[in-house]
Every structure is written in structure tokens, then in C-alpha cells.
Design goal:
By secondary structure, the protein is an alpha/beta fold. It has 12 helices and 15 strands. The structure holds adenosine-5'-triphosphate and magnesium ion.
């Protein structure tokens, strides 16, 4: 509930530097009179300008400054709402826009537009359009509800029912959804990149594993080769007979015996040769000079020759044995040298095997890349989570948006209130003795059935009948606002509502309704018919024009 208290303005339209002060909460009913152009309707402009920065009439900002004196134009309105006293001051030349809460100016850190938004959404909880639908009726620039476009009708009703918040939520949801969509898009790109990275890392690790595997295989092959070589050397060694050294020594002894034998035979041969020569040369003994008979000589020579033949045979036999022994000896020596060679190879092989036993396979590090892979997988899960969250959020937002659509929650609420609204409108229509069945549907289209005629729309009716419908809607909206405690105010201004369109009966009926309005309502009636209304109103304000400036007399 907004309780308007006081309106002050100077140098505004036809008002001069002497401020006009109107107590908005002084009496239940005030009649405002004055001839044409004395500044009566200016009250509406002043209120509208102070609250919404828009005059009621279609005049540009600059056109609001009093053209006679051109002095600083200022409008102030004071009101009470949500347990606080508020004052809004607006000026032109110089421009001013100040909001005071309980005497203290609210910091105007943001720009004027946001400050205005703050005033409408947080303090007044009412926009320009809705304010006029529940506060003002009549005046040249007033657009009755029934002449508003469907979208504007919806705005007014949503404000009345306090569900305008859903429209705002829808906008917020849309903005959030755009952010989430961007998030999901970048998450999808990150996800693909991460998957590629993981694939690459897996390949890298598998290459490293192959390197290690072949290093191990090479090592094992080296061990097997060394073992095989050792085995083949051993089997070579096994082929040689045992005791070759003993055989060598025995053969050497045999060779020495044969050499000795050969010496002996040579010596015997020499002696036999000299013995034969002796008997061939000598006919007597050189020592005893005794003659050697021919018989003895022949017998001795035969004997010597026989011995020489035998010795020659022995020499030849001995030579054969010697050659054979030497041959065998050389063979055995060769074998021994071969064995020594094999033994040396085996010793080398033993060294190789010992080295292999101590050797460790050189493996490349797989632990670090494997750890990296695990980290990458965790990152992938995080990215996937982010994507899922964004997608969930988009889904929720879409569901919420669906619900907030015109066909969603808002329509549901409006549908619930529509019968109440229609009832109230019809009740006021009856009070104004206009007996029609008025019906507003959920698209805010009206159908009006008269008792005798067919179905009509607003445009079908006469000005007086239209006025009755406008009045009924105004009072119905005020009732709904009161019920919802949303855009309820104490102020009601009727600008020349009575003057042209309403007949006497209509005027009487309207007065009846005004009497039924709740106690705190302050009704201002601007009229050119003071004689009809004066007796019925609590106070009267008379506007006049003095020295070209509007004033209250
Ligand atoms: N910038 C301005 N400077 C001075 N006077 C202005 C300016 N703009 C409009 N006016 C005049 O202000 C006067 C007040 O108009 P307003 O609509 O309040 O009169 P009114 O009392 O409601 O008259 P009516 O009975 O004809 O509706 C008009 O005469 C108008 O010409
Ligand atoms: Mg007027």
C-alpha cells in the first residue's frame, strides 16, 4: 500500500515560482475546480513526472518547464510505504532526481535509468502504466484499459496480481540459459580435446612399454646366447679323451728311447763297417803279425755283413717307429693346444655371463606418463561433470521457461483470478446500472453481452456506457490490488469523468460507489460541474490564473 501524502511543484507547466502544495491525504473527497487552462490536470502530470519521469500528457521533458519564467522546474512527492517515509524530488534545468528514505538521500551510484528502475521495482512496486490504471480516470491523455493493446492489458494485470516477477524471471532465465549454453559449448570442446589428449597419452605409454619389452627380450636373448655358447664349448671339450698330458709324456719317453736306440744302432753300424774294412784291407794282424787266413777272413766278413744287415733292418724299423711316435706326439700336442684355446673361450664366456647376471635391463620411465594419464582421466571426469551440470541447468531452465510462458504459471494464476475480476467488474457495472454481462478471457479480450442485444465489444458502446465500463474496471482493479496488497494506493483522481459522458443517473451511481470505497481513500474529482458535486465533497480546491501563472485561490 502506498500512502501518498504531499505534492509540491513550481515552474512546472503553467505554475510559476510560487509553489503549489497539495495535501494528498487530507480529506476523503476533494473537488478541484477552475476554468479551462487554470492548471487542474497539471496535478496528474506533476505526480506522474515525479514518480515515473513521464508527464501524464504527451509533452517532452523540456516542454514541462514554465515557458513564462523559464526558471528551475521542481516537483516533489512524499509518500509512505513498507514502513518508511519517502520523498522523490525531480527537477529540470538543472536536472535533479533524488530519492529520500526517512529523510536520507539514497546513494545514486548507478545511472539514472537504474535508479528509476530501483524506484519503480523496489519502492513503488508499480509501473507507469499500472499506476494510471488504478489511480486515474478521465483526462484527455488517459488510455482506458479497454483501449490498451492485449500486451499492455497483460502488463497491467500481471502488475495487479504481482506476477510481473515471472516475466522478469523469464528474462533472467534466458540470460542464464545463454551463459549455460556457452558453458556447455566450451565444455564439449574441452571434452573432445581431453579425449584426444588421453588417446595420445595411451599411445605414448604403449610405445614406451614396447621399448621396455624389446629391451627385456634383447637381454633375455643375450643370456640364452651366452648359455648356448658355453654349452657348445663344454661339449667341444667333452670330445677330447681324458689324460692327454699323460699320453704326451709317455710319447715323449718313447721318442727318447727310440732316439737312444737309433744312436746305439748307428754306433754298432760304424763298428761293423770298420771291422769289415779291417778284414778287407789287412792280410795279417797288425799287432801280432800273424797271417789272417783267407778262410777266417771270409768267415769274419760274412759274419760282419750279416750283423750289418741286421743292424740296418733294426735302424729302419726304429726310424718307422720314431716317425710314428712324432706324428702321434704332434697330434696330441695339437689337441692339448685346442683344449687350452677352448678353456680360454670358456673363461671369457664365464666373464660375459657374470656381467649379464649383474646387469639390469635399462627400462624407460612409464610411471610418470601413467600418472599423467590418471590425472588426465580425472580432468576428463571434471569436464564431463561440468558439461552434465550445464546441460542439466539448460534442461531445468527450459522447463522453468516453459512453465513461465504465457501458457504456464502466469496463465494459471490469471485464470484463477479472472472469475474474481469478472465478478467485480460486473458488480460495479450493476451499481452503475449498466446491466450487461462483461467477460474478460485469459487473452484479455472482452465480450460484453447486453440483456437485449447480441454480443458486443467495448467499441460498440456509447461514450457514457464506455465510461461506466472504464469506471467498473478502475474499481475492480483497485479491489484486486487491495486483495493482493500489491499496487494498492490511497489516491484516486477522476479528471472530468462526470462532466461530459455521465448523465445524472450515472453521476449519482458513481457517487454511491465512491462512498463505498475504503476509508483511507483520497478521491480527487476535477470537474466543471461544481454545483452538482460541491455539496457531496468534503473540500474544494479552486484553481485560478494570476499574472499568467496557475495558483490555488
Ligand atoms: N510549458 C508551459 N509553460 C506555461 N504554460 C503551459 C506550458 N505547457 C502548457 N501550459 C499551459 O498550462 C495550462 C494548464 O493546463 P491544464 O491541463 O492543467 O488545465 P486544466 O485546468 O486542466 O484545463 P481544462 O479544464 O481545460 O482541462 C494550459 O493553459 C496550458 O496551455
Ligand atoms: Mg484538464
Amino acid at each position: 500500500m502506498i500512502l501518498f501524502k504531499e505534492l509540491t511543484y513550481k515552474n512546472f507547466l503553467s505554475t510559476g515560482n510560487n509553489p503549489i502544495i497539495i495535501d494528498l491525504n487530507k480529506s476523503r473527497s476533494t473537488l478541484i475546480v477552475g476554468t479551462n487552462g487554470t492548471g487542474k490536470s497539471t496535478i496528474l502530470d506533476a505526480i506522474s513526472f515525479a514518480l515515473f519521469n513521464k508527464p501524464h500528457r504527451n509533452v517532452k521533458r523540456g516542454g514541462l518547464v514554465n515557458s513564462v519564467n523559464g526558471k528551475a522546474c521542481e516537483v516533489t512527492i512524499e509518500f509512505e510505504t513498507a514502513g518508511h517515509n519517502w520523498k522523490v524530488l525531480r527537477g529540470i534545468k538543472p536536472n535533479k532526481f533524488e530519492v529520500y528514505q526517512d529523510g536520507n538521500m539514497i546513494d545514486q551510484q548507478t545511472n539514472v535509468r537504474d535508479y528509476q528502475k530501483f524506484l519503480e521495482q523496489n519502492i513503488l512496486k508499480l509501473n507507469h502504466k499500472s499506476f494510471h490504471q488504478i489511480v486515474v480516470l478521465g483526462s484527455s491523455s488517459f488510455i482506458p484499459f479497454m483501449q490498451l493493446k492485449a500486451w499492455d492489458r497483460r502488463d497491467v494485470i500481471e502488475d495487479l496480481l504481482d506476477i510481473g516477477v515471472f516475466s522478469k524471471m523469464k528474462t533472467v532465465l534466458k540470460q542464464r540459459n545463454n551463459i549455460q549454453k556457452d558453458l556447455a559449448k566450451s565444455s564439449r570442446i574441452s571434452l573432445d580435446n581431453q579425449k584426444d589428449k588421453i588417446e595420445y597419452q595411451k599411445k605414448h605409454i604403449s610405445q614406451l612399454e614396447n621399448i621396455n619389452k624389446s629391451a627385456k627380450m634383447d637381454f633375455e636373448e643375450d643370456i640364452i646366447n651366452a648359455q648356448n655358447e658355453m654349452d657348445s664349448l663344454k661339449s667341444k671339450l667333452d670330445k677330447y679323451p681324458l689324460g692327454l698330458r699323460g699320453t704326451l709324456n709317455s710319447l715323449r719317453k718313447v721318442r727318447e728311447g727310440l732316439q737312444t736306440e737309433k744312436g746305439k744302432h748307428t754306433h754298432s753300424m760304424k763298428e761293423l763297417v770298420s771291422k769289415a774294412k779291417f778284414f778287407e784291407v789287412n792280410t795279417a794282424c797288425p799287432t801280432c803279425t800273424q797271417e789272417i787266413s783267407e778262410n777266417v777272413k771270409n768267415s769274419m766278413l760274412t759274419d760282419v755283413r750279416a750283423q750289418a744287415q741286421q743292424t740296418q733292418k733294426d735302424i729302419e724299423l726304429n726310424n718307422i717307429k720314431y716317425d710314428e711316435t712324432i706324428e702321434t706326439l704332434e697330434k696330441v700336442q695339437d689337441q692339448i693346444s685346442d683344449m687350452a684355446n677352448i678353456n680360454s673361450q670358456m673363461s671369457t664366456q664365464t666373464d660375459i655371463m657374470a656381467k649379464l647376471a649383474n646387469k639390469q635391463v635399462k627400462e624407460v620411465d612409464i610411471d610418470a606418463p601413467a600418472k599423467e594419464l590418471v590425472d588426465m582421466t580425472y580432468d576428463l571426469i571434471d569436464i564431463q561433470d561440468n558439461l552434465t551440470e550445464a546441460e542439466d541447468q539448460i534442461l531445468y531452465n527450459n522447463i522453468a521457461s516453459e512453465m513461465l510462458k504465457d501458457t504456464g504459471i502466469r496463465t494459471k494464476i490469471i485464470k484463477e483470478y479472472l472469475p474474481v475480476m469478472n465478478n467485480l467488474i460486473n458488480k460495479y457495472l450493476q451499481t452503475l446500472e449498466f446491466f450487461v454481462a462483461f467477460h474478460l478471457n485469459e487473452n484479455f479480450e472482452e465480450s460484453i453481452k447486453s440483456r437485449h442485444r447480441d454480443e458486443f465489444v467495448y467499441a460498440n458502446f456509447s461514450e457514457g456506457e464506455k465510461m461506466r465500463i472504464d469506471l467498473s474496471l478502475l474499481f475492480a482493479w483497485r479491489q484486486v490490488a487491495k486483495m493482493k496488497n500489491s499496487t494498492n494506493t490511497n489516491l484516486l483522481i477522476l479528471d472530468e469523468t462526470f462532466d461530459s459522458s455521465l448523465d445524472d443517473e450515472g453521476t449519482d451511481n458513481l457517487m454511491k460507489i465512491l462512498k463505498t470505497l475504503e476509508k483511507g481513500t483520497n478521491t480527487f474529482i476535477i470537474s466543471h460541474k461544481p454545483d452538482v458535486l460541491e455539496s457531496k465533497m468534503e473540500q474544494k480546491i479552486q484553481f485560478v490564473k494570476k499574472n499568467n501563472f496557475s495558483a490555488i485561490s
